[in-house]
What does this fold into?
Amino acid sequence: MAGRRDDRGVAHDGSVGVSPEGWLPDRVSIGVLTRAFPPELVDRVVATTDSRERRRRLLPARLVAYFVLALWLFRGPNCGYGRVMVKLVDGLYYRRRGQDLLDGVLDPQGWVVAGVDDGQDRRWRPPNISSLARARVRLGADPLHMLFEQVAGPIGGSAAGSPDAMAGVFCCGLRVVSMDGSTTDVPNSAENDAYFGRPKNASRVNAFSQVRWLVAAESGTGALIGAALGPYTVGEQTLAKDLLPAFTEDMLVLADRNFLSHALVRDVLTTGAHLLWRASSSFRLTPVAVLSDGSYLAVLKPARKSTSDPITVRVIEYTVHTTGPDSTGKLVEEPSELFALVTDLLDPEVYPAIDLACVYPMRWEAETVIGHHKTDMGQGMPVLRSKTPETVAQELWALFAVYQAIQTLTGVAVDSVGIPPDQISFPHALAAAADSVSADFPPSSD
It folds into this structure.
């Protein structure tokens, strides 16, 4: 029977072996987010993407992956690389430093015995900032991209009408998904400038290069079902093609007037999903038949040189009337601009125009999701940390992964206590995730 071992890996029978706590850097966690990113998942992703370190480093790949995720939990003042790493390793590292102090062997350079390998003590101390930056480069973007793909997906119930269906998620039996995009400034560097490009007009060039990104979010919950990113010079319609694998036949995809084109409509319909997109006032839609509810059928024609077939769509036109005081204080009714919605749902009996017109405003929930990304999780910081396209991508995939993990945990709270998802404060959920940072992982298997 093996003897018990103390915190330094020394067994009570005098033998030396691997500490029951394992190599200290393997035991860092990010609190409640471990539900979404358990250590075995991170290890598997690191192995799949061939990102594992070739030798035991102060910064093994698992620790670096959690470090990159944690950068989005701590964004305010005094939250640089060093401070974030301290938050991750604080518990175990300083416990071992304290034990060394009690044993009278405190190392003035901060080294502690962090594990035992082949009978030899392995030492560790928090790495410096330049080491953390190099470790991010070694890890690359693929592991964080794969982690996001592992957690992405709807959380608002399995189907319309099912006991687990959340309010605001379904319309006419279809799961409502909103697609929208934004841009984020990236640090000035030759590599970023060459890859991403900058906004410019006739009189000025933007101070920063920008990365363009696109998300597809479940309405009612804000959960991400997909994301895409690329240079500023790539348009939203092009990036939207990267979201197609996330769409399924039970979805109704909402989008604003920047997305409508024959090619993209064709591509989305090929996935089996349905769509409800706004048309701009300049987009020509000629009625070919008027339906019983006042909506009409029109034809989207492909580009001249395309061999694709025309697509018959239904167009729903409406205005929104609001009542408010005029300059004299008298209540008057004011109509909005004319909205024109394009959909492949052609049957007015099964998909009433009033229901579709009422669900379209849910598209703006995608902008709420973007606001969470840029304001709550970004702490108002307009520029990312990364100076290469690869680490920019790494940082954004980590952002999407952490955001989705928090939304998933919020969904668990909705299921357990019955609180509507729109009544749960995202900033409060983010703060709770940051406050739960601890060190409780088992060692990795390698």
Summary: The first helix runs from residue 39 to 48. Residues 1-24, 438-446 have pLDDT under 50 and may be disordered. Residues 62 and 90 are 17 Å apart (CA to CA). The first strand starts at residue 112 and ends at 117.
